[in-house]
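User: My notes are a mess, but here's the protein and thiamine diphosphate's SMILES. Can you give me a structure?
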Amino acid sequence: MSDDGARLVGMLRTMYRIRFFEERVKELFGQNLIWGGVHLYIGQEAVATGACAALRRDDYLVSTHRGHGHCLAKGGDIRRTMAELMGRDTGYCRGRGGSMHLFDPEIGLLGGNGIVGAGLPIALGAALSAQYRGSDQVCACFFSDGASNQGTFHESLNLAALWKLPLVYICENNLYAATTPASKTLPLPDIYVRAAAYGIPGVSVDGNDVEAVYQAVSQAVTRARGGEGPSLVECKTYRIEGHCMVLDCHRDPEELAAWKERDPIRMFEGRLLEMGVIATDDIAELRSQAEADVREAVEYAQASPFPSADDLGLADLPAAVVAGF
Ligand SMILES: Cc1ncc(C[n+]2csc(CCOP(=O)(O)OP(=O)(O)O)c2C)c(N)n1
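Assistant: No problem, the inputs look usable. Here's the predicted complex:
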């Protein structure tokens, strides 16, 4: 298989892993085996996958509250990711952070964040550090339509443009911020046009088309690595699940059905079959491999211990407080 063929198949594999991971997380949450805030990424797999395929392992990635897909696509360990969500000591933050606090310096993952828009200044700092050290690293900063209305978005773009930082802003416009449709918060339907205010390139791509995301982010990465500064890539996509496991919102059933028709994984499978890069048997094989990876991750997490009370510092608290936990 050619290098390009291997890259395409690798992207399909990553998308399966994210999708099956998320479906399992949904089940585990329903069984009370995962607690806390969980925001599913189903429907947006092409964004994390296409963007991360354009990054090097040592490039930085700043994630969001909806970050499982970012972590897996960047090369995060699926077992440690699941263990973190299940509150186990073997997780990325030793089970203390949960879904929104996946962090792995080995792969440049500078964390998720429960504060909407908080990743944008962090990305600025990471990119400034890379530039200062002359390290040749790029920072990819993920955020969504809601975050694009935060002051941090504008402050970050302003300084990154001014200092020509190696930053790629990746906006996942999934059309909702919690329960609020983007049409009620954005004066214009497009977010990429905001790049013009800072004199940097802004493009819009079909966020359900993994190859389109890969191409756009690759261009932005080349520019950033070449010292030409930041870019904004808006990926138009859709969040298939509710905002989080405990907060859904009314969405027009027709809108939902139309986006389900544009499932990024099914579209990509079709394209690869048509191109002759894979055959139907390969799809079955890739899917079952990804399912096995997720199954093993759950087994690993379930076999892992919870952090001990001593370790959490609970031993120092009065007994009455601990009893309340
Ligand atoms: C500063 C801040 N304001 C509000 C919230 C509550 N909140 C959590 S997620 C969210 C919606 C974010 O929307 P968006 O950035 O579009 O991301 P999406 O959930 O659609 O992926 C809000 C308002 C928060 N966590 N932080």
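The beta strands are 60-62, 139-144, 167-173, 176-177, 180-181, 202-206, 231-236.
User: Great, I'll file this with my notes.
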